Amino acid sequence: MNQSSLSPSTAAQAMARWATFAVLLAVVVIMLGAWTRLVHAGLGCPDWPGCYGFLTVPQSESSIAVANARFPDTPVDVEKGWPEMIHRYAAGTLGLVVFGLAAYAVRHRRTGVPVKLPLFIAGFILLQGAFGMWTVTLKLWPQVVALHLLGGFTTLSLLTLLTLRLRGRARQKADREPPSTGLAGFRPWLYGGLLLVVLQVALGAWTAANYAAVACTDLPTCQGQWWPEEMDFRHGFDVAQHVGPNYLGGQLTADGRVAIHVTHRLGAVVVLVYFVALLALMWRRIGDSGLDNAIRLVAVVLSVQVLLGLANVVFHIPLSIAVAHNAMGAGLLLSVIHLIWQHQLLPKAQNATATHTTTMNQEVTA
Ligand code: HEM
User: Fold this and answer.
1) Secondary structure of the chain: what % helix, strand, coil (to 5)?
2) Please, what is the angle between helix 142-170 and helix 116-137, to 10°?
3) Cα dist. 253→221, 223, 242, 306 in Å?
4) How far apart are CA 140 and CA 31, in angstroms?
5) What is 12-71 written as a DSSP string?
6) Which of 9, 85, 97, 110 shows the greatest Cβ crowding within 10 Å of its Cβ?
7) Residue 161 in contact with residue 337, Cβ under 8 Å?
8) Distance between CA atoms of residues 218 and 246, nearest Å
9) For residue 171, what pLDDT is reported?
10) What residues does each domain of the chain span?
11) Torsion of CA 72, 140, 57, 49, to 10 degrees
12) CA 324, CA 242: separation in Å to the nearest integer?
């Protein structure tokens, strides 16, 4: 369609629909990534982007023979190949949607739709694809696995931001009620909360990438101790570990893994205490700001996430709970971004009202 034939809100609405779809797809891709890791299929295909040089997992006897001749050290395991390839197909589809969004934004830039953000996301997803490749070629090197997970969460967050911007534009947010609360001062505390969640997600990613989930199997203690004596933080957080030979199952000592696991638990306590205090203080001043649902959402998602983390330990990392814990980590990040976004609109609406009133007064006076 010719760009001039679209009104600004029609272009924003169409793009918002695709951006929402991209958000949902990104959640699916992230969950598929966790599933792939949890069923130990991260090296299900030893090459990239194909699988043993094929477009799909080799299944027939002849193609398996060809594949095994190409990669004699890693014989075909069809059950491990499929999770890896399904994750790649979904990620590839997401890449296409993101490129489509960027192309649409450039084409309809005169309608005022955001352009820089979708272009940035398109560039970022290429980087994320490269991390996907290095995950395989560097044989699950924990640094790369953790950064790949963080990259997935970043892609999701950026797409959510794009969706919020587009939906705000399409809805002409000027019709919001002006707030009558003292919530403006909470902005730095909300950003502080976001930083804590990002750090906690990074710790979770490090726990998962180093297979430190089963380092502590009891709760609330770890190996029967509140502060296990044998913890080795230097080893557990040595980000300069050497590459290879193969990190499937993890290479760290037990003491290093205990240190990682305990740090992730402590991180959860910090995040929980911080948000309980922050959300309670915000709730007391909520007035008619309209932030109640955004605050409730963070509270519910955080509670579910902590319960899933505890269930992970109690039930020894069942697949469904571990995947849900990963997804809810993403959900927590998004709910906090959503709260910050809603909060950002408050002072703007206030300013808008003030400016509008001043302009009207000037017009009346004139
Ligand atoms: C604010 C709360 C929390 C957040 C945001 C969070 C986030 C995460 C993330 C993003 C992962 C990586 C998941 C993956 O790669 O599949 C993870 C892993 C993990 N988390 Fe949490 N977590 C939280 C609380 C907890 C709590 C309270 C516990 C238990 C006491 C816990 C136990 C674990 C374990 C055992 C893993 C490793 C699971 C695996 O290897 O698949 N988490 N966490």
Assistant:
1) 70, 0, 25
2) 160
3) 20, 15, 14, 26
4) 17
5) HHHHHHHHHHHHHHHHHHHHHHHHHHHTT-TTSSSSSSSBTTBSS---SHHHHHHHHHH-
6) 85
7) yes
8) 29
9) 57
10) 1-173, 183-366
11) -100
12) 31
Q: What is the rounded CA–CA span in Å between residue 208 and residue 317?
A: 11
**Largest CA-CA distance found in the chain, in angstroms, rounded:** 87
**In whole angstroms, what is the distance from residue 315 CA to residue 22 CA?**
33
Let me know if 84 is a catalytic residue. yes
Query: Of 105, 140, 98, which is closest to residue 123 (Cα–Cα)?
Result: 98
Residue 22 CA to ligand 1 centre (angstroms)? 24
List, chain by chain if needed, residues with CB within 6 Å of any ligand 1 atom. Answer: 34, 38, 149, 197, 200-201, 204-205, 207-208, 213, 264-265, 268, 271, 305-306, 309-310, 312-313, 317, 322, 325-326, 329, 332
Per-residue model confidence (pLDDT) at position 157: 98
**DSSP-assigned letter for residue 363:** H
Q: Which residues of the chain have pLDDT under 70?
A: 1-5, 169-181, 243-244, 347-366
> Please, are residues 301 and 324 in contact by the beta-carbon 8 Å criterion?
no
Amino acid at 242: H
- At 358 the pLDDT is 40
Tell the residue nearest (CA) to atom 2 of ligand 1: 268
Q: Give the per-residue pLDDT at 80.
A: 96
Residue nearest to atom 18 of ligand 1 (CA): 204
Catalytic residue (one of 61, 84, 229, 363): 84
